[in-house]
Amino acid sequence: MKAHFYHPIDDSLEEKAKAYKEAYRAWLNIEASFHFHDQQGWEDRLGSKEDLQKAMETTTNTLEAAIGSFSIEDLNTLSQNGLIVGDELEHLEAHHNKDTKASIIEARKKEISNNRAESSSFDKGIEREK
Fold first, then answer.
1. I need a surface site. Which of 21, 41, 51, 108 has the fewest CB within 10 A?
2. Are 50 and 33 in contact (CB under 8 A)?
3. What is the pLDDT of residues 96-105, one digit of tens each?
4. Distance of CA 52 to the CA centre of its chain
5. For residue 27, which of 49, 7, 55, 1 has the smallest C-alpha distance?
6. Is the pLDDT at 125 greater than 60, yes or no?
7. Whether 39 contacts 57, CB under 8 Å
8. Nearest residue to 71 via CA among 16, 108, 21
9. pLDDT of 36-75, one tens digit each?
10. Are 52 and 37 in contact (CB under 8 A)?
11. What whole-number distance in Å separates Cα of residue 78 and Cα of residue 13?
């Protein structure tokens, strides 16, 4: 189980949207921390590189958990009701589109692999008959 801090109060779309927005803001903040870490004067205030990496891992896990809690139908409702807007919505939609494309590609690869296996066993059957 990966460490995260995605814990909406309940399973309502509104609460999941609030928790996603919190995770998104934390992700933006840790990204900024990485950017400023190497600049003079900030290295002592932001913690060590290892601390930032651990925080990034937890924040990324949180954001992924939040994104995974929404269905495609939820995205439409979130957008229509203005629960998530702007960059937050774009990030959520992009992540969902990427996951959808990846799952379609994986399904297609499995299908091709299965067809090859069936074709191969069919070809072996023909060779035995000869």
1. 41
2. no
3. 766 554 455 5
4. 20
5. 55
6. no
7. no
8. 16
9. 777 766 666 767 788 888 989 999 999 999 999 998 889 8
10. yes
11. 8
8 Å CB contact between 29 and 62: no
In which residue are the tokens 């998530």 written? 84
SS (H, E, C) 48-75: CHHHHHHHHHHHHHHHHHHHHCCCHHHH
Tell me the backbone φ, ψ of residue 2, rounded to 5 degrees: -85, 140
Instruction: For residue 5, report the phi and psi dihedrals to the nearest 5 degrees.
Output: -125, 30
Q: Which amino acid, one-letter code, is at 88?
A: E
Do residues 50 and 56 lie in contact, with contact meaning Cβ atoms separated by under 8 Å?
no
**Would you list the domain boundaries of the chain?**
13-120
Cβ atoms of residues 84 and 78 within 8 Å: yes
pLDDT at residue 15, as a whole number: 94
Question: By C-alpha distance, which of 77, 89, 72, 86 is closest to 20?
Answer: 89
